[in-house]
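Q: Could you fold this chain for me?
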Amino acid sequence: MTELFTRYHEPPGGKVTFDKKGKPVWVHDVKCWRCGGAGGADIWKFTGWTCYRCGGTGWERKPAIEKLYTVEELAKFDAIAAKKAAKKEAARVAAEATAKAEADARREAFWAAHGELIAKANALVGRDTFIDDVARKATERAEISEKAEAALKTAVERLIAEDTRKAASGWVGEIGERIEVEATVERVADFIRSRFNGYGQERVYIITLRTAEGNALVTKTPSFYAEKGSTLKLRGTVREHIEYQGEKETRLERVKEL
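A: Sure. Below is the predicted structure, expressed as structure tokens.
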């Protein structure tokens, strides 16, 4: 008798019969998928334990019918399946190659258009979380929106200008020297402290100014105030020369506007 197998190359585990077309089939019982052949489960004990699908028999109500094939038939099926699989794999590889080529082209175009800005942003890493975040996402995705690019450019130029300004700053005068200088107010800050005589409180103004040569001057006193953006002629005493956040600053005291 000719050997017969299921489509998965397994021999039938029981009697072989034939369907209406005269084709060999294997009719066999199948365990209930809901209870796994147990007929019931403890998780259903409050509703009767018994599996409602198989009625407690542990078997599907209808037997499974599997077609059977000869070795030659299976060989043909396997050859067709292998051909389909190879065609599918070739299509997958081609699609993957096309996608990679498109991604490479997009990335190349991105770097050609935005590489200079991203390089400047990466040189400032760790100094501004916004710059770090936008540059990282743009690099990972090889894309950046016009709005994000404009905002990144503004932030980068701001830090570069700040670095340029700091590098240009030098100390003015000698410690203890009384100097006269013209400068523009860049920043104004203030805080409240107790008066030195112990009576009440006073507001202290921290004024940062910059000369036409780019030198930074700082005053910290309750007796001098100026509006941001105003240009003043001042007379003051050089208290100290310091370096703050990479910038040379001249601290003045006893400042008066001329």
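A (continued): The chain has a mean pLDDT of 93.
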